Amino acid sequence: MTEDVKFNRKFECEYGVMVEVTPMIRRIVANNPGPYTFMGTGTYVVGRGQVAVIDPGPDYPEHVDALLAALEGEEITHQLITHTHMDHSPAAALVKARTGAKTYGFGPHGAGKYAKDAVVEAGGDKDFVPDFVLKGGDVVEGEGWTFDCVHTPGHTSNHLCYHLREENALFPGDHVMGWSTTVVSPPDGDMADYMASLRMLAERSDEVYYPTHGGRIKNPQRYVRGIMVHRKQRETQILDCLDQGVTNIPAMVERMYQDLDPRLTGAARHSVFSHIIDLAERGIIKSEGEISLQAEYRKVE
User: Fold this and answer.
1) In which band, very low, low, confident or very high, does the pLDDT at 115 lie, cut at 50, 70 and 90?
2) Peptide bond into 220 cis (omega under 30)
3) What burial letters (b/e) apply to 118-144, b meaning 16+ CB within 10 Å?
4) In the prediction, which pLDDT does 86 show?
5) Contacts of 182 (CB under 8 A, 6+ apart)
6) Main-chain dihedrals φ then ψ at residue 168, nearest 5 degrees
7) How many CB atoms lie within 10 A of CB 179?
8) What is the pLDDT of residues 61-107, one digit of tens each?
9) Helix or strand (DSSP H, E) at 31
10) Which residues lie closer than 8 Å to 39 by C-beta, 6 or more apart?
11) pLDDT per residue as tens digits for the range 2-31
12) Distance of CA 155 to the CA centre of its chain
């Protein structure tokens, strides 16, 4: 792999205003900008008349008001949830209460980890339970549009992407974003799963991505390969840190991340921790005691 990732942070939006992305796709952005959400959560609307809404967004009544006002005279027949972080799924309950629109998703927060008896982080939308449970390979159809469901665990265990057949476009949620790398935070986030999902996406033939945060991604296969290279570079940095006597995660983050926004320190530590877990499970490194954010690590001889 020789590609490297190039982020695109050029994205302008007017909060609460529905814009046409293509004749078939519209987007309205919630006013929840921040270090994890970029300019805010982009709620996509697919179709005309009878429409699907992808990631209705955070529990912001003003965002739901703007969404429904923009869709006056149309019917929301499906709410498609990519995953259950608080900036993606909570508004589904508000939309359903006002319109009756059913929800679709992989399952409750952490659903992909339940079989492994993992306790997932507290930051998810624990109230969301889809009306209709989806899995990879399922097909969701509406008036003039067809979605193939693509299960991409890694960012969360219940993460689904939605492929719009009519435009050969993928809605990758947070699994791939054009403005930044994706946070992979254990225990629900899993680096081995994330990399496997990236490899799968790189083999697909999607023409364009529409992430929930930021703008479209053209040439997505090349971009995904660049993300994979970036992650491998992070792995190499961790091993280099160990060679140089930097043996704990806080010190690694200080060494590896230059000019890091202090608000993202926790996210960086968790992403490094996810790499650490993957390296340990592959037998490349080991911890002094239990694997944790506070442990000391060394290479396996």
Assistant:
1) low
2) no
3) eebeeebbeebebeeebeeebebebee
4) 95
5) 154, 155, 174, 175, 176, 194, 227
6) 45, 45
7) 16
8) 999 999 999 999 999 999 999 999 999 999 999 999 999 999 999 99
9) none
10) 11, 12, 13, 29, 33, 213, 214
11) 456 889 999 999 999 999 999 999 999 999
12) 5
In this chain, the answer to whether the domains covering 19-227 and 228-299 adopt an identical fold is no
Write down the domain spans for the chain: 19-227, 228-299
Tokens at 68, concatenated: 């429904």
Residue in the block written with tokens 């809605």: 171
Is pTM, for the whole model, over 0.90? yes
- Mean pLDDT, residues 256-273: 91
Task: Convert the pLDDT of each residue in 165-191 to its tens digit.
Answer: 999 999 999 999 999 999 999 989 999
CATH number belonging to the domain at 228-299, selected among 1.10.3720.10, 1.10.10.10, 3.20.20.450, 3.50.50.60? 1.10.10.10
CATH superfamily entry for domain 19-227: Ribonuclease Z/Hydroxyacylglutathione hydrolase-like (3.60.15.10)
